[in-house]
Amino acid sequence: MTTSLVISAFDEQTGVATLTLNRPEVLNAVNIPMAEALLSAVKALKEHSGLRCIVMTGAGRAFMAGGDVASMAGTPEHTKEVINGLLIPLNEAILLLRSIDAPIIAGVRGAAAGAGLSLALMADLIVAEENAKFLIAYNGIGAVPDCGGTWFLPQKIGTARATEMMLLGRTLTATEAKDWGLLTEVASSDSYDDTLAATVKRVASGPTKAFGAFRRLVEQAAGRSLAAQLDAEHKAFLEAAETADFQEGVSAFVSKRPAVFSGK
Hints:
Blueprint: E1 6-11, E2 16-21, H1 32-46, E3 53-58, H2 76-99, E4 104-108, E5 111-113, H3 115-122, E6 125-129, E7 133-135, H4 149-157, H5 159-168, E8 172-173, H6 174-179, E9 185-187, H7 192-204, H8 208-221, H9 226-240, H10 244-255
Parallel strand pairs: 2-3, 3-4, 4-6, 5-7, 6-9
Antiparallel strand pairs: 1-2, 7-8
Helix pairs in contact: 1-2, 3-4, 4-5, 8-9
């Protein structure tokens, strides 16, 4: 029986989708079949109605220990073929995931290295077990970060610290990563599952379309003037005002009761 390299599950009741990277025997190092499996899973996920939160995690002892470097060995032509085979589907999957309104949460145990760090950084929130480690790793093989690492990392922790991690190959513990602003929560081994579940539940019950607008506004702010950003916020607010969640939020505020959002 063939084992799925990316396990995808969707809970119809909560609207929570879970993507589990599944090569635990090699710490979920991504090879071409896994990259293609992730893209297929994301394409299928995008078709789900009622999607309110996406959780990405890794099977076994690690989130993802980067790319399958051994597969890149060989002639220059072979190396190029492998790199294209990895990055074309991975990049498409990342863009598709970030185009979905539903917030993305990374649940990290063990190592998030190389492409694994980039995939974790792609998430809106990261919940990590206390033994998690975060590292760039590319300087050890004479390569450069991929899967959006050079875009996400400076956004999370600033240019100076991102450069330090890239040039010195610095490994951050979960506590250091939290202090640097990379993580949302650090939990003990005993409380990790509960902490992740509580974060997912809170996010999945929120106003999903507004969350998507939050992400787009933040992503695009650095490339805009203040005037352009004010216009974008104005437009996004008007669009949010047309949603059922906005109507519910205003009604709940006026009635002095907790809002119950539907994600619509």
